Automatic annotation (TrEMBL):
Skewed-composition ranges (Pro residues): 1-12, 135-149
Biased composition (Low complexity): 62-73
Pfam families found in the cross-reference section: Condensin2nSMC
GO BP of this protein: mitotic sister chromatid segregation
Name of this protein: Condensin-2 complex subunit G2
Length: 1232
């Protein structure tokens, strides 16, 4: 619009020019010329301002002017002498002008009779030219400019442009408001366009224009409309499927009667039939009402088409969505209802499709398939009042129902039961009343029989289904059967051993009481079901409370006649959250009613807290969620606080604690950013520091103290007010011990820390924690006679003062356990601070961070060295040390000058692995004396178990840290080999410790050993993962991988031999999972190219090889083989299925064991391993030894060695075993 220039004014006519000349020659005009020019200038400026203010109006006026200009350029119909002239001129007109031209032809014009004929002749010529690309378009105007398009393409575009114009003329003639053209005159033109639709496939606009013309012709029911369907209807059908819009489906629906015009037996219609079948799986057709009506109409047109469509529907049943399957059912019912009786199509639907669905539902292999089939059948069941439906269901279902309900397969009975419950009652409208009564009695008999079925799932479904049947069909069930059914359900099935059955009983009764006719008998029976609220299963208790809620909503029944109030209060205080919340909803009208004055409601709620503090706390916790208003709960908080502050409140200690905790729960539910938080504003005026201190002195439990601190955090108005609680919070933080296993103490300490941080006193708290850690370090040092760890050089001066003060005071600590508890509590808090994002930053950036880390390092070393002195070690210092190093390294990443510079994690790992490694090496190298020292007389009988448990806890923590941080890149790959060495030493120690504990007959009781083995299972997994990482990452790790693999395999028979199969069952699943890694570890010496050893060397015979030889010898005579032998069988299967190169490498390890046994005179081992290798690995059709060069050469060497041993006479005592071994080896070599 910026460069827009108005068109020049039209030229003046001769008369206008003459009048203008006379005007300028007038003297009066010339005397006022100056004045008129000024007026014009002012008028021009005014107009320009208006134009600037009304740009949008200017755009609309410009558009209107352009369209009016175009309209003005439309030639008049009277200017054309012939229709050829009119049609030629129409080629250069836009659509709107063309419409104006056609509609402006007067009735008296001679163009009317000849226009349809001329238009038809031009259409025929244009279509013929379109089919022949070399021909030029007839009557086309010359091109305005040379085209760069290819001649054939340009010619086709010209043809299509002509056809668009002719199609528009035909449509405007058809839609002429005066209808001057007879349908017979226009039909040849429309039919010509329709028959050529296939030629316009590249021009969507032209196709839609022609198809719309045919659509309107059909809707107006004009003569010859059946000639305009064969091309237009498939187009609209394809367009609706592709577009997926309901508007397109509605267009097809308007043409639905035209589907009957097609000959579906003709072979040329196959594509159209495929398009129709595609509609059956098109969502827009299945989900829209018009689409379903179209599909139902199509199904009734042709038998073959219907069979194909039914097959397509059947294929969609296993994967169809619920809404789609319900729609299919509706379509089938529409078809069935609209088909005449005794027709082939009706027989196809009833006796083939529906009967096949019923049989498929009964024999379905899954619950989902059964449910999907029943969704389709549900359309007929819901319309059973329609004439003929009841008869159809009875005829199809009755013959197979009762037979299937007695099937031996429980899944068949369950599927049939679901179908039976959907269709009940099965009655024949054509039978007599007596026959139907007998049929109904038979159905009720089977239903009662299924209540005692062996399958719990069938019992659960049948009892719930029975109650639903009684709810819906109470009037038609014989009166004598109802009490019998309900008595069995409530008195027997509510005691069923299966939880699902008991839940079904409660759900079924909940459905049943919705029927008013059942209230009289249920008022008596419900009192017997109250005991289920104390059921051992959570799902049953939750269902029982749901039943009570349903009874509460029924004004004819009372829930307190079913369960007494004392039982509900007891459950509210101690049950699961899911149950407690439901009970709160149930008791809300009793203990916090909205109908009473608010003061009285608060008194009732406080009376509940007095009656049962735990129940009152849970009630207050869920009151807001179950409908209590925020203002009423805020008033309850105010009243409760006034009672808590009162010196003569008349509450015992438990009630006071419960009242404070309940206040905290309500405040927590009201706190937040919503409107509920504003309700607490009046309460905040009551809270002061002095009153908080009063509450702290008044309560006794940790949970109540936590609640007081939470109240202070939520309601104290300013930081200065919170500062008054500094000493209280610091005392809690620094005095609590045993935090790692006590959740209540943890929450208390966290609440105190939260208040400290909100006051901006984080440095004071960290100073206190550093002082506590330093005191523990110095106390341990004084107890052992060593110098305490010196603080780092960056320690601030304030820390030195605390250090001197702590050193001079020298607190007396009675025992090492007390020392450890204090150190562990402070360490746990450091670790917990690091786990929170906000507190982590405060700790790492604190002035005391370096000192805290140095103290953690010293404590971790002490805890590792003195782990034998603790009965049950708290590894919090080790965990805090590991965690601190992790987050410190992450913070250092941006400040490191070089990636090769050691990180805090690198230094920490080196230190801690040295500490634990030296301890384990000492235990392994001097096993008898060291383990005996761990069982000194100062400790109790289970000291060895406890010390082993402590080592397992520490080692598991270290291994978990290594594995977790290897994936994040904090642990470098070069550190993995050092970690693997530690893991190898750890597994050797565990083998020795388990063996020593068995030999010394120590108290390795089930609880203690199981806890140790659970940790050992975790560390076993971590070591296997570490082994896998080392094998796949490092090239020079074959020696370490080989040794730790043997140690890991040794653990399994060690645990099973010395602790029993029950303990070994905890370890076997983990070992089985990592067998492929163990195979690679055993064969690593031969699989890594850099290793040039001819054979793997064994220093000692591993326990797993020794145990394997015994199993292979005795397994033939044992019925129940051990866990370890099953593990070895899986290993053999994996070896035989895998690469021959791996089998060759691992087999050489087994032959090395044979060689070691031959050298040490262990002839049973030689025989057993030989039989295992020859029979398990190389026997039973493995094949030739062509790809097993190592095994073949090694076996030949062993055969010579055995022959020499027998020939020298040195092995007479083991001659029989060696001869057996030699025979096994010869058999394999000869077969090769």
């Amino acid at each position: 619009m910026k460069n827009f220039k108005p068109p020049p004014p039209p030229p003046l006519s001769f008369r206008q020019r003459q009048n203008s000349a006379s005007l300028y020659s007038n003297p009066q005009y010339s005397s006022h010329t100056h004045t008129q020019k000024q007026k014009k200038r002012k008028e021009k400026k005014r107009k320009e301002k208006q134009k600037m203010k009304k740009k949008s109006s200017k755009r609309r006026s410009a558009t209107t002017s352009s369209s009016s200009g175009a309209a003005a350029s439309v030639p008049s119909a009277t200017t054309f002498a012939t229709t050829d002239e009119l049609l030629s001129a129409a080629l250069s007109l836009p659509s709107s002008s063309l419409k104006t031209l056609i509609h402006s032809i007067p009735f008296t014009s001679d163009l009317f009779p000849s226009l349809p004929t001329s238009l038809h002749s031009r259409l025929v010529a244009s279509i013929s030219s379109l089919q022949d690309p070399s021909a030029s378009p007839p009557h086309s105007p010359p091109p305005a400019s040379p085209s760069v398009s290819p001649p054939s393409k340009r010619s086709r575009l010209d043809h299509l442009s002509l056809l668009k114009t002719y199609a528009s003329i035909a449509y405007f003639c058809f839609s002429h408001p005066e209808k001057p053209f007879a349908p017979d005159e226009l039909l040849p033109c429309v039919q010509c366009l329709h028959d050529s639709l296939v030629l316009f496939e590249s021009e969507e606009t032209l196709i839609l224009q022609v198809a719309s013309l045919c659509e309107d012709w059909w809707k107006e029911k004009l003569p010859g409309r059946e000639l305009l369907i064969s091309q237009s209807l498939p187009y609209f059908l394809s367009r609706s499927v592709t577009a997926g819009r309901r508007a397109e489906v509605r267009r097809v629906f308007a043409l639905r009667e035209a589907f009957a015009l097609f000959d579906y037996e003709d072979e040329s219609i196959e594509d159209f039939k495929l398009l129709l079948l595609r509609c059956f799986i098109c969502p827009v057709y299945v989900k829209s009402d018009e689409g379903r009506k179209i599909l139902a109409f199509v199904l009734g047109l042709n038998e073959k088409l219907a069979k194909d469509a039914l097959s397509l529907i059947r294929s969609q049943i296993p994967i169809g969505k619920k809404s789609v399957l319900v729609a299919y059912g509706e379509i089938l019912f529409r078809v069935w209802k609209g088909i005449e009786k005794e027709s082939i199509m009706k027989e196809e639907i009833e006796d083939r499709f529906l009967l096949g669905l019923i049989e498929g539902a009964i024999l379905a292999r899954s619950k989902g398939l059964n449910a999907n089939i029943r969704r389709i059948l549900g359309a007929f069941v819901e319309q059973r009042t329609t004439s003929g439906v009841e008869k159809l269901l009875c005829r199809l279902v009755e013959p197979v129902l009762f037979r299937s309900l007695q099937a031996a397969n429980s899944e068949v009975r369950l599927n049939t039961l679901h179908l039976f419950l959907d269709i009940f009652p099965i009655l024949d409208p054509d039978s007599t009343r007596e026959e139907n009564d007998n049929l109904l009695e038979k159905q009720l008999y089977f239903l009662e029989k299924l209540l005692s079925d062996d399958a719990p799932e069938i019992r659960a479904v049948s009892v719930e289904g029975l109650c639903k049947i009684l709810r819906l069909f109470w009037e038609i069930i014989p009166t004598s059967n109802i009490p019998k059914f309900l008595t069995k359900v409530i008195d027997e099935m509510s005691f069923d051993v299966c939880n699902e059955v008991r839940v079904s009983v409660l759900n079924g009764v909940r459905y049943l009481i919705e029927n008013p006719l059942s209230h009289e008998i249920m008022r008596v029976l419900l009192s017997r079901i109250g005991r289920v609220v104390t059921d051992s299963a959570l799902s049953v208790r939750a269902a029982a409370i749901d039943l009570l809620l349903a009874v509460c909503d029924n004004r004819f029944l009372q829930y307190n006649k079913i369960v007494d109030l004392e039982t509900l209060v007891s459950l509210l205080g101690g049950d699961h959250t899911r149950v407690a919340q439901k009970i709160t909803k149930l008791l809300l009208p009793t203990y916090f009613p909205t109908k009473l004055p608010l003061k009285d409601a608060c008194v009732r709620c406080i009376s509940l807290i007095k009656r049962s503090p735990p129940a009152g706390v849970r009630f207050c916790e869920f009151s807001l969620l179950e409908g209590s208003s925020a203002n009423s709960l805020a008033e309850l908080v105010r009243v409760s606080l006034l009672l808590a502050f009162s010196p003569n409140k008349g509450l015992d200690q438990d009630q006071t604690d419960g009242l404070v905790i309940a206040i905290d729960k309500i405040i927590n539910s009201l706190s937040g950013d919503g409107e509920d938080s504003s309700a607490l504003n009046p309460v905040r005026k009551l809270i002061t520091v002095e009153k908080i201190k009063v509450l702290i002195d008044a309560v006794s439990s940790d949970q109540a103290r936590e609640a007081v601190l939470n109240i202070a955090s939520s309601l104290l108005s300013s930081t200065g007010s919170s500062n008054g609680l500094r000493d209280v919070c610091m005392e809690i933080i620094l005095s609590e011990v045993g935090l790692s296993e006590n959740l209540e103490k943890q929450r208390l300490v966290v609440a105190a820390r939260k208040l400290i941080f909100s006051c901006g006193l984080s440095e004071l708290m960290l100073e206190g924690l550093a002082s506590a850690l330093g005191s523990s370090v110095r106390a341990f040092s004084d107890k052992s006679g060593e110098d305490p760890a010196s603080p780092v050089s960056s320690t601030p001066k304030v820390k030195k003062k605390h250090a001197k003060k702590a050193k001079s005071s020298k607190p007396v600590i009675s025992s090492t356990s007390e020392l450890a508890a204090n150190a562990a509590a402070a360490s746990w808090q450091v670790k917990d601070l690091l786990m929170n994002e906000e507190t982590k930053e405060a700790l790492l950036n604190s002035l005391f961070s370096d000192k805290i880390y140095s103290y953690l390092k010293a404590l971790a070393e002490v805890f590792i060295e003195k782990c034998f002195e603790f009965e049950n070690l708290d590894v919090s210092p080790v965990l805090a040390y590991l965690t601190y190093a992790k987050y410190a390294s992450l913070q250092e990443d941006n400040n490191r000058s070089s990636p090769d510079q050691p990180t805090t994690v690198d230094n920490m790992l080196e230190h801690i692995l040295n500490c634990i490694g030296q301890l384990l090496e000492k235990l392994v190298s001097d096993e008898p004396s060291t383990l005996k020292r761990g069982r000194s007389t100062e400790t109790n009988e289970g000291s060895e178990v406890n010390s082993t448990h402590n080592i397992v806890k520490i080692s598991t923590a270290i291994l978990k840290f290594v594995l977790d941080n290897t994936t994040t890149g904090l642990v470098k790959p070069e550190k993995l080999l050092r970690c693997l060495e530690f893991a190898s030493t750890y597994t050797k120690y565990m083998n020795l410790a388990i063996k020593s504990a068995d030999q010394s007959n120590s108290t390795f009781d089930l609880d203690t050993s199981k806890e140790t083995l659970v940790l050992l299972r975790s560390s076993y997994t971590y070591m296997a993962k570490l082994l896998h990482l080392v094998i796949t990452t490092l090239d020079d790790s074959s020696e370490d991988a080989f040794h730790i693999t043997n140690s890991l395999l040794d653990l399994v028979p060690c645990v099973e031999t010395h602790l029993g199969a029950r303990h070994a069952s905890l370890l076997i699943p983990v070992a089985k999972q990592w067998l492929p890694v163990f195979i690679l570890g055993l064969g690593s010496k031969k699989l890594i190219p850099s290793v040039n050893e001819t054979s793997p060397k064994l220093v000692n015979i591993p326990l797993w090889l020794s145990t394997l030889s015994k199993f292979s010898e005795e397994s033939e005579n044992e019925e129940n083989i051990s866990f370890f032998e099953k593990l070895i069988e899986n290993l053999a299967i994996l070896l035989k299925k895998g690469s021959p190169k791996i089998l060759d490498a691992v087999g050489s390890v087994l032959l090395a064991g044979i060689e070691m046994g031959l050298e040490k005179g262990h002839y049973v081992l030689v025989e057993g391993l030989s039989r295992f290798v020859c029979s398990k690995l190389l026997g039973s059709g493995y094949g030739a030894l062509d790809n097993l060069e190592l095994l073949r050469g090694y076996m030949q060497e062993l055969l010579i060695a055995i022959e020499n041993c027998l020939g020298d006479g040195e092995c007479e005592e083991g001659r029989e075993q060696l001869e057996n071994a030699m025979g096994s080896i010869k058999t394999v070599l000869l077969s090769a």
